[in-house]
DNA sequence: CTTGACCATAACGTATTTGTTATATAACAT
DNA sequence: ATGTTATATAACAAATACGTTATGGTCAAG
């Protein structure tokens, strides 16, 4: 079984793969901000930022709250949670491999593993 | 200054954004495999898998070892490490916000229910 | 009601990604 | 040598990503 097709994870990792979007997230770690406030540091047009925010929202990395004519953005934990849940697969495998290195001599003594 | 342009992170997150590549990584958590072994479960040609592996290698998520005519692939920790280091930024911000929310609710209600 | 600020969406060009087929290279077996 | 297996690379087509300009909608202020 191939397992791995998860549109949610696709969206989250793809959202994180862009430096502008990561910079936006980094900015949001300091607190909420409106779209205009988020756009200000970049040499980019406002529509471009709007689409980046849409991608981040679709990935569950931010949420938006309307207040008058402004949209306040803040970090959301759902996107990070699913990303972290998947990465745990790699983390545990890598730490297992590391443990195996500890017992390498033992493993060599007891023969080879199943293949 | 905007900070956030990191080609290494771009490569790692982009590599993780593809379901085929995540499936390859998931397979490698069970141990080393050759290119052909990795390609076998997929309805995809071998050159396509070869390029996915190149992307994963460039992102520091796998390493390859030549043995005769075969290339054995295994997980590498460097890619995951840089990814995790960056995500820690989000994690700490989200937990800070969560703490603040706790304090805020406390201050507002001084003893209402906790969801 | 008109104006202006804030934000979203559509239309579009270009670069990048992802697959394909065809072919090259290197090692191994006959 | 010849053929076969394992893998990489080049050339190409289709889809997607990312930016732009142009424009539309909503709210707040005068």
Task: Describe this entry's structure for a reader.
Chain A has 115 residues and is an alpha+beta fold. In chain A, 62% of the residues lie in helices and 12% in strands. In chain A, helix 1 runs antiparallel to helix 4 and helix 1 (7-16) packs across helix 5. The longest helix of chain A has 26 residues, at 77-102. The A-B interface holds A 2-6, 9-10, 13-14, 16-20, 22-23, 25-26, 28-30, 41-42, 61, 74-75, 77, 80, 83-84, 86-87, 89-94, 97, 113 and B 2-6, 9-10, 13-14, 16-20, 22-23, 25-26, 28-31, 41-42, 61, 74-75, 77, 80, 83-84, 86-87, 89-94, 97-98. Chain A binds a DNA duplex (30 and 30 nucleotides) through helix 4.
Pick out its properties.
DNA-binding; 3 strands; alpha+beta; about 120 residues; three-stranded antiparallel sheet
List the SSEs and their pairings.
Two copies of one chain form a homodimer.
Chain A: H1 7-16, H2 19-28, E1 33-34, H3 35-39, H4 46-58, E2 62-67, E3 70-75, H5 77-102, H6 104-110
The first copy, chain A, binds a DNA duplex (30 and 30 nucleotides) through helix 4.
Instruction: Give the end-to-end Cα distance of chain A, rounded to a whole number of Å.
Output: 18 Å
| Uncertain ranges of chain A | none
Please give the order of strands in the largest beta sheet of chain A: 1-3-2
Largest sheet of chain A: 3 strands, antiparallel
Strand content of chain A: 5-15%
Q: Please, how many helices of chain A? A: 6
Query: Would you tell me the structural class of the helices and strands of chain A?
Result: alpha+beta
> Which two chains share the most extensive interface?
A-B, 40 and 41 residues
Mean pLDDT of chain A: 88
Which range best describes the helical content of chain A: under 10%, 10-25%, 25-40%, 40-55%, 55-70% or over 70%? 55-70%
Give the overall shape of chain A, derived from the CA principal axes.
elongated
| Oligomeric assembly | homodimer
Radius of gyration of chain A: 21 Å
Number of strands of chain A: 3
Order of helices and strands of chain A: HHEHHEEHH
